[in-house]
Design goal:
Low-confidence stretches: 1-30
Radius of gyration: 20 Å
Shape: globular
Distance between the termini: 34 Å
Structural class: alpha+beta
Largest sheet: 12 strands, mixed
Number of strands: 16
Oligomer: single chain
Number of helices: 7
Strand content: 35-45%
Length: 295
């Protein structure tokens, strides 16, 4: 257990070290900071195409100039799509290199790189969609890990007048309402892939940009390539993932994001030793501003 006096450092370790879901990247009691373990994962397929989306989102919807920015990736094969944080995959890859041998584990550059990629990982969801069976599995984590599988949602798009250029590619407009947000998509008919970021697909062309009308979440395409690396489509195999319903998983995730410190202390992850002057501020509920507001 950790004391509140070490909160800032501990929060970094807790959020960054376990962001990958399959394993911890930080110190371990049985081997120190160089005790890396190979990523425990279930591989489903190998991607043919990688589609990249820059993501920007507001952790607090009232602070319009405080965006967080990251990089997400959509991998597409004949049978599956995978969507998640690009830097999560990079961290997994380096982690597995470090786990190969003691020599690798002490590689200074690799250790620096893995911490860099962990810090850059900001999109908490890992999504795998079975295209033939129209089933989507999502893994997510705040303090705890959750996994749910449900029927891939069919987005009720309304095609709209209007056009624009994104990456010099002509795009058309569509709108929908999903999970409590009004969303605008710009899609390219010249790229006949009915996919987009996260669960958003079903348009007559690849979604090049997607955002809600309040500009809380913005996904913008910034690259398309044949899948070379990364290309392995997988979910994490970890008994700590609680398999539950979408409703329960998202409700628990929101609660943990909004009441992170209180739940950490209540669950024994942290121990209050000395209450500093900023204790009440640290304990105050935080905004979550999730991509999905309703479920």
């Amino acid at each position: 257990m950790k004391s509140v006096s070490a909160l800032v450092f501990y929060i970094f370790l807790c959020c960054a070290g376990y962001a990958q879901g399959g394993h911890a990247y930080m110190t371990s009691p049985d081997g120190g900071m160089y005790a890396y373990k190979t990523t425990n994962r279930a591989v489903y397929d190998t991607a043919n195409i990688n589609i990249f989306y820059k993501v920007r989102f507001l952790p607090d919807s009232t602070k319009k100039d405080k965006y967080r920015e990251g990089q997400t990736l959509l991998m597409v094969s004949d049978n599956y799509t995978w969507f998640g944080d690009y830097y999560r995959l990079k961290a997994d890859s380096i982690n597995d290199f470090l786990a190969e041998s003691k020599k690798n584990a002490h590689n200074e550059k690799a250790n620096d790189d893995i911490y860099m990629f962990v810090r850059k990982t900001i999109f908490d969801y890992v999504m795998l969609t079975d295209l033939k069976n129209t089933q989507t599995t999502i893994q997510l984590k705040a303090l705890n890990r959750y996994q749910y599988t449900y029927s891939t949602p069919k987005i009720d798009w309304a095609l709209q007048a209007g056009d624009t250029l994104i990456n010099n590619i002509p795009c058309k407009k569509a709108t929908c309402r999903y999970a409590g947000r009004n969303l605008i998509a710009w899609y390219a008919e010249s790229i006949p892939l009915p996919y987009g970021p996260y669960v958003f697909g079903g348009l007559p062309g690849l979604i090049m940009q997607l955002y809600d009308d309040g500009l809380n979440w913005i996904f913008t395409n910034n690259g398309i390539s044949n899948a070379i690396s990364p290309k392995i489509m997988y979910l994490y195999k970890n008994k700590k993932y609680k398999k539950t319903t979408r409703e329960k998983a998202l409700a628990a995730y929101r609660n943990e994001k909004e009441n992170y410190m209180a739940i950490a202390i209540e669950s024994g992850v942290m121990e209050v030793v000395n209450k500093g002057s900023d204790f009440d501020k640290l304990m105050a509920p935080r905004p979550s501003n999730m991509l999905e507001l309703e479920w």
